[in-house]
Amino acid sequence: MTIETRATHAGSGTDEPWYRRARRWTQLTFVEDDPLHFDREFWVEVMRSTRSNGACISAGGYMAFYPTQVPYHYKSRHLGDMDLFGMVNDDARRLGMDVMARVDPHAVHHDAAEAHPEWIARDEEGNPLEHWSFPDVWLTCPFSTYYSDFLIEVTREITREYDVDAVFANRWEGSDIISYSEGARRQYFDATGKSLPTGSDRRTPEWAEFVSWRSDYLSRTIVEWDRAVREINPKGNFIPNRGGKLTRDLNPELVKDMYPAFYVDKQGRAPREAIWAAGRVGKRARGMYPDRPVTLISSVGPENHTHRWKDSVASAAELEAWIVDGFVHDAKPWFTKFNASVPDRRWVEPITRAFDLHARAEDLYGDKTPAARVAIFDSVPPETSGSPLSVYIGEDAAEDGLYHSLVEARIPFEYVDADSATTERLGKYSVVMVPESAELSEEHVALLRRFVAAGGNLLVDSDAVNRVDGTDNGLADLIGIEVVAPTRRAVQNNYVAVMDPAHEIAAPFAPASRILGGTAIVPVRAAADTTVPFRFVPDFPDLPMEEVYPRDRARDPAIVLREHAGGGRTAYVSFNVASLFWETLQSDHGTLITHLVRWVLADDRPVTVTGDGLIDIGVRESAKGVTVSLVNLDNPNALRGQLRAHRPIGPQTVVFRVPDFVTTATIRTLTTPTGVASDIIAGHVEFTVPSIELLEVVDLTWE
Questions:
Q1: d(CA 382, CA 258)
Q2: Segment (H or E) for 700
Q3: What region holds the GLMA-like second domain (predicted)?
């Protein structure tokens, strides 16, 4: 193989690693006939116009797009003497871009399957697993020499012959359908002395043991792949892509050094997701690994998961909003195009606009880092994770309800991963919110106790005080309650009465004497030193209509508030307010969550934004200033479907609370990048944004 000398790319002589240099990514995923009609000039212009400084280019694995010499490494039958991967790699390098070579090991062609039957995944009866979508192509077994030998050969060949910064793997974990190949059976037996688990119920102890073994095995595989790259390029990496679990489905101790950055494969929103799900990728990843960059992999086509249109185009407004909401919360932009031919070019302009917004916003962000006073305690329960073999996190109405209520309330917030949280990390927040779906260990409860003792504030949602088996997990005593009976579910026609109309949590509901209740009720008794501003109205019928009226006065606690000696506050909601808010979007539930958060937060709000519409807010801070990003999500399709068009809103007033030592302040925005001096009045700076189409960034700096 003859490979021409590559041009030295920008940044290669700096100390900054490639994964921090590359902040806007173009991914080109080739298909077999691309060598016949590849438009080189078009793709050079796309990379240039989007200001991309990273490129991920299909190289090999399932199909090679370079003149590979590895046996049974299937090469595109249209490649001929062409080196398609090498050509695009050269172009990217000349543009000063960092490059990852993409490989996909999840399937092989018939010749490889015939020559190496040990590479193929098999069902419980030992039958080879044919690809579910394409005939005469076979799924590979991740516990075979295809992974341990063949892919390492491919990785070494690419790293040796080409100037790449990393090798990137897609669909590398193996299928959710477990492989019962001889290799898998033998390795599992040798490690555990047991046979592979069978059956469709994957919540059994046998399956849990296998999932743990699989996690360790795949983690060790990543280490070997990474070693293969580093032996040739010490500054390089092997980067297997990730879903929302990040390393939760791997062994974090084994792979903690294998992921210097995360590239999260969340290419679009699912049917029941809000457009703000893009930003959650950044928050969730940062909540687990605050020191590592995260990038959001977005597709130019619709990503419905149920229906497949891989070679199509999403609406322009949807593409832009998805990418922008992601990078506002520090999930750097990456777009992927399947198939180098472009029968529909409607994606080019919105991708270019979104990437340009990111480049311009970066100038305002500078060295500021994301910040907030509120955090969601991120304990991902198994039932929201889909298959235990999946890398994705499923729907969780309780978490979604908290998230959306905070967006509506314009309260900036972050995530903090429960299993990697420390006293120091929690201490950065004023308020920690615990969703009802959280599964808290003794260590989690002890951590939250220390947080409150140090003056932190806690908002706890209904069943978060119980273990899966319904027993007390130890949090109840902290927040001033005693759980007196099992959770009541499928409750109908439930209401909570306002006990103190003057209380700041109850005041927003005036003149109502009662509001909507829940459908899942945790029966509790409140401690003497608590305040109970809402109590449940005892159940009464919902039919016949003539019987729909309360018989008794309000009794059992619905909201329990406590002020602690260390200065912290706790608030407990004994019904499923957050999940109901997401499922029904009733305003009473959203208002209640908002004012509970404001009560525990007290006056610790360094930035406030007022105005009409739904806005997602991102805040970044440094010792020299604060930057506020405002994403306009005020759209009828914000919660479902695709955005059809942006609907400008305004005005929006941003009020900054500045430190006492600040005497002069300057404001810049995306639309007015020239700094304007701002008055400081009573320790605050106020700025009004006249209108927002999709994004405005307000940057306040001081001396």
A1: 25
A2: strand 695-702
A3: 395-462
Residue 507 has what DSSP assignment? G
pTM > 0.90: yes or no:
yes
Q: What is the 3-state secondary structure (H, E, C) of 341-381?
A: CCCCCCCHHHHHHHHHHHHHHHHHHCCCEECCCEEEEECCC
Report if residue 378 sits inside a domain: yes
**630-650 per-position pLDDT tens digit:** 999 999 999 999 999 999 998
> Which band of pLDDT confidence, cut at 50, 70 and 90, is reported for residue 10?
very low
Convert 604-629 to b/e letters by CB count within 10 Å (16 or more is b).
ebbbbbebebbbbbbbbeeeebbbbb
In the numeric block, which tokens belong to residue 641? 């479907």
Helix axes 277-288, 316-328, angle to 10 degrees: 20
Whether residues 508 and 628 share a domain: the answer is no
Domain coverage including residue 411: 374-601
Residue 16, burial from CB neighbour count under 10 angstroms (0-12, 13-18, 19+): exposed
Q: Is the pLDDT of residue 110 over 50?
A: yes
Helix (H) or strand (E) segment spanning residue 218: helix 205-230
Task: Say whether both 612 and 681 belong to one domain.
Answer: yes
Same domain, 560 and 614: no
pLDDT in tens, 521-580: 999 999 999 999 999 999 999 999 999 999 999 999 999 999 999 999 999 999 999 999
625/594 same-domain check: no
Q: Are residues 542 and 579 in the same domain?
A: yes
What average pLDDT does the segment 5-30 reach?
77
**Interaxial angle between packed helices 205-230 and 151-161, expressed in degrees from 0 to 180 and rounded to the nearest 10:** 30
Distance CA 280, CA 399 (A): 11
| Average pLDDT of every residue of the chain | 94
Length of the chain: 703
In this structure, is residue 73 part of a structural domain? Answer: no
Q: At 358, phi and psi to the nearest 5?
A: -65, -45
